[in-house]
């Protein structure tokens, strides 16, 4: 049996922690440091920004639902603790190798937009860096070792969107 590296296990509910962190930073800045530190997105009216956030939230939830449905339809587990059975390459995985992580980033951004603050968008940066440098490289090594077609898939499909 070949030696396949184990997949890294992301912190459970990391996207919820990032959203809470972004909102917590915004609340702390607003309450403790004053309105100037709340980093409100300057718009003549807040509702277009908030509407954009709601649309981003809806599309992010739809993206995650579609990606999870593709995993279930292919019979491969979502859990990092179980071996992947199939390399899912259809649906949203045709245009991004990480649509579930992309949807998490969209959800974090949408909360910042709906709260009309840059804090939610700033909370996105450490989470994106964590995914890019800590989680995804280990997952890709695992998939490369597990599936012979992974390199060809990775060449034609971007990690994120570009």
Automatic annotation (TrEMBL):
Membrane-related topology note: Multi-pass membrane protein
Primary site of residence: membrane
Compartment(s) of residence: Endomembrane system
Protein keywords: Lipid biosynthesis, Lipid metabolism, Membrane, Phospholipid biosynthesis, Phospholipid metabolism, Transmembrane, Transmembrane helix
Pfam (any one): PEMT
Protein name: Protein-S-isoprenylcysteine O-methyltransferase
